[in-house]
Fold this sequence. Notes:
Layout: H1 2-11, H2 14-18, H3 51-63, H4 71-75, H5 80-92
Helix pairs in contact: 1-5, 3-5
Amino acid sequence: MRRALAAAIGLASIAAVASAELPTGAASCSGCHPASARVASPVPRLAGTDRAAIAKAMEDFRSGQRAATVMDRIAKGFTGDEIQAIAAWYAAQR
Length: 94
């Protein structure tokens, strides 16, 4: 399933990804990242954020290039393909 979603991300439009199943691990993001733009939070909202920006941030957390309190540990739990799938899914949400 992960490979199929990753392939879909590479070949499909963002609109198609928006209707795709929630990628593995993406649900855990909602524990800190607000779903609504109306929620005041120091943690940025992911829905509608540029896919490349989400993926870069996750890769930077994973490699230690970006300082974090928790995200570095969380990001290390995802493969590169999973990060791409999560980033594409959140980017497609509005």
